């Protein structure tokens, strides 16, 4: 299968739609027509591991069966990483260890799995961390190292500092807003590099965060998240509000690895549903 394009997918864990207003760089891209922006409605439960699986498979948690963060379980579905591997594309990830558990091996082994370089794995080149407060700057730098050294077709960068601050202080705290602004500043450094290298860049979140530092339910602070796409060569037309199951379809369509279900969903977006 011929690859249409390469994608860098940035997942800012715990960023709710409301606080995306503090992301000045991303707002500037949108205003200048260099990024398309939408609101995404997270699936239920609005928890991290179930929604990683939803985002990367296009299946709802009740369909794919990953319903909690607590159980180390591998994905049983076709996902973006496995579809890339089947198509002969190169994958990479800099992210929380739950990604390794879902797509490479479970349970996670700190000694064996933290740094992964194995062509037989779904995530072939990975740098995985276990601390929620592992600095976002380090996550981005780890991802950039993978990009520069291994030139992946699909690279996922997954940071946790926004989520960590939200759980500790709530989404109306200065600490939470500071983490949001920090992520925006990191994007201002790396997005121009990635776009110049020919990547389509997608930035979104898995779930939001409540005022009391929780998520899991359908409250808009917990379930509404932002979505940006930058350097989109397919000229997608985003609606104001999008279901989370469509994210995998968009990624798969750009990469040229989509299943029939993903393709139908993505084509409805690119036609402007």
SSE inventory with pairings:
Elements (H helix, E strand, L loop, with lengths): L5 E7 L11 H8 L3 E7 L6 H10 L3 H4 L15 H7 L4 E6 H7 L6 H4 L1 E3 L7 E5 L6 H15 L3 E6 L1 H9 L4 H23 L2 E6 L15 H4 E7 L10 E3 L2 H10 L4 H11 L3
Helix pairs in contact: 2-11, 7-9, 8-9, 11-12
Q: How would you sum up this structure in a few lines?
A:
With 273 residues, the chain is α/β, with parallel strands linked by helices. Helix content is 41%, strand content 18%.
List keywords for this structure.
single chain; about 270 residues; alpha/beta; Alkaline Phosphatase, subunit A; nine-stranded mixed beta sheet; about 40% helix; about 20% strand; globular
CATH H-tier superfamily: Alkaline Phosphatase, subunit A
Could you please say which CATH topology applies here?
Alkaline Phosphatase, subunit A
Strand count, sense and barrel status of the largest sheet are: 9 strands, mixed
**Overall outline:** globular
Task: Give the CATH architecture.
Answer: 3-Layer(aba) Sandwich
Q: What number of structural domains do the residues give?
A: 1
Q: Beta-strand percentage?
A: 15-25%
Q: Termini distance?
A: 27 Å
Tally of individual helices: 12
Q: Helicity, in percent?
A: 40-55%
Mean pLDDT score, rounded? 95
Which class in CATH terms?
Alpha Beta
Low-confidence stretches: none
Question: What is the N-to-C succession of helices and strands?
Answer: EHEHHHEHHEEHEHHEHEEHH
What structural category arises from helix and sheet content?
alpha/beta
**Biggest sheet, strands in spatial order?**
4-5-3-6-1-7-8-2-9
Query: Over the alpha carbons, how many angstroms does the gyration radius reach?
Result: 17 Å
Number of strands: 9
